[in-house]
């Protein structure tokens, strides 16, 4: 049996206004959650997940029992997020990664979803034992880009799997056999996205004190830009120690700063009903001294037709329709998406489509970005609409599309230029597309992303190339 000596750290970084990361560390659990959603409460999402984990923290014996426990934690955290969104649609769009493990003195059961990472340092070698659920990682897996290109890819923050309250989510579950001297690191992409693995390895391997190691790693992330929240938890497997096993667990980051609403609080704040209405009181019986005949004159008489009941039913239906229309309208006003408008990229407020011929959206901002200048993948994305969390995110996405369109336009123009023959071609070290050698003497392109070809021969893109989101 072993114990865990551990340390944790979470901070805003240099650019962000608030900390949307959360962490939890104890002798039996290490965890990092990276919230997302900006104004849509990413800090709340990470706080919910970390807090839910802390409530279930205890020592387990069996590895299968630990796996069931961490799977249950993830499921309950996702369900709680769904409840909060259902109570307040303004936070729809929030989500969080989850990357952590439960330790029983010999093994660690790991649960992972998103792009936060888990590393194992053993005998001076650092191994990433989690697999990023991100779009750039899928491109790496397919051999379309290299890990070095992924580090600067414009869509490196696009996550394919996350906890966001929706029913369909699929975390990775695994068990690690640990031995004395191992160091386990869980971190958000505020560290792994800015500090290369070999530097992380050097710091973890060279610093005996864990607090010094994590402070050093946080400084390195800030020196590399610090454009995201930085959160990391490190645990070292040591000989069994009662004092270490008795340490109290602690929450970090947003989990210490955000107040998690109790069930019904958000609904009450929004003015929504939070319970069942009380049963109506029976009508009051009024005594009268009138003669039966006189009283009958003022008694309600049965109507020979059912118009009042029909009218009440129609009014009720109208109220339901009106309430639904108001709810849809209110929800639509909080949503934004990007779509094509007269062949150009535009930002819309509302929801795509219409109801009974009435549009659910209105164009908020137009751009001069031509959809035809984008790669085929991005053209389809714009034509099918791209959902975003808010107006700020929409503007950031259109700026990314502008960069991609400018790049592709330059590449296409270069392809159309005739190749100039050269008497003595000189080999070049510039990157080329496999199977598409550059024409001798073709000048290299400037201002292209790392990993993109700097020399291109005139060609017509094939269907396969057009289907590649990185192809212009």
Automatic annotation (TrEMBL):
Keywords: Membrane, Transmembrane, Transmembrane helix
Species, as recorded: Tessaracoccus oleiagri
InterPro entries found in the cross-reference section: PPM-type-like_dom_sf (IPR036457), PPM-type_phosphatase-like_dom (IPR001932)
Record region (Disordered): 271-301, 415-472
Membrane-crossing segments per the record: 307-328
Descriptive protein name: Protein phosphatase
Domain PPM-type phosphatase positions: 5-237
């Amino acid at each position: 049996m072993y114990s865990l000596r551990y340390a944790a750290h979470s901070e805003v970084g240099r650019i962000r206004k608030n900390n949307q990361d959360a962490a939890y560390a104890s002798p039996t659990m290490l965890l990092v959650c990276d919230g997302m959603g900006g104004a849509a409460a990413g800090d709340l999402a990470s706080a919910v997940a970390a807090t839910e984990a802390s409530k279930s923290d205890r020592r387990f014996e069996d590895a299968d029992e630990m796996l069931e426990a961490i799977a249950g934690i993830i499921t309950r955290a996702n369900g709680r997020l769904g409840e909060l969104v259902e109570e307040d649609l303004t936070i729809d769009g929030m989500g969080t990664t989850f990357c952590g493990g439960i330790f029983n003195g010999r093994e660690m059961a790991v649960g992972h979803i998103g792009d936060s990472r888990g590393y194992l340092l053993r005998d001076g070698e650092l191994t990433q034992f989690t697999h990023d659920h991100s779009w750039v990682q899928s491109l790496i897996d397919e051999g379309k880009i290299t890990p070095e290109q992924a580090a600067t890819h414009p869509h490196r923050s696009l996550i394919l799997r996350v906890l966001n309250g929706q029913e369909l989510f699929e975390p990775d579950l695994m068990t690690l056999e640990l031995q004395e001297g191992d160091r386990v690191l869980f971190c958000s992409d505020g560290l792994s996205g800015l500090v290369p693995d070999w530097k992380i390895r050097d710091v973890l391997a060279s610093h005996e004190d864990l607090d010094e190691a994590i402070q050093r790693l946080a400084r390195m992330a800030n020196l590399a830009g610090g454009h995201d929240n930085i959160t990391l938890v490190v645990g070292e497997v040591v000989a069994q120690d009662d004092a270490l096993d008795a340490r109290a667990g602690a929450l970090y980051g947003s989990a210490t700063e955000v107040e998690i609403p109790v069930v019904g609080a958000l609904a009450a704040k929004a003015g929504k009903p939070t319970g069942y209405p009380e049963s109506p009181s029976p009508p009051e019986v009024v005594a009268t001294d009138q003669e039966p005949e006189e009283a009958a004159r003022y008694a309600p008489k049965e109507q020979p037709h059912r118009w009042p009941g029909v009218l009440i039913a129609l009014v009720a239906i109208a109220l339901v329709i009106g309430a639904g229309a108001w709810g849809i309208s209110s929800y639509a006003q909080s949503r934004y998406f990007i779509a094509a408008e007269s062949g150009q990229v535009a930002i819309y407020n509302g929801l795509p489509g219409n109801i009974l011929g009435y549009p659910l959206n209105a164009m908020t901002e137009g751009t001069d970005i031509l959809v035809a200048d984008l790669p085929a993948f991005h053209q389809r994305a714009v034509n099918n609409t791209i959902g975003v969390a808010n107006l700020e995110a929409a503007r950031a996405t259109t700026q990314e599309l502008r960069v991609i369109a400018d790049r592709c336009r330059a590449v296409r123009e270069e392809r159309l230029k005739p190749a100039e023959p050269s008497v003595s071609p000189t080999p070049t070290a510039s990157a080329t597309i496999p199977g598409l050698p550059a024409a001798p003497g073709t000048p290299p392109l400037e201002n292209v992303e790392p990993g993109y070809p700097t020399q291109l021969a005139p060609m017509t893109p094939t269907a396969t190339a057009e289907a590649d989101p990185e192809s212009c």
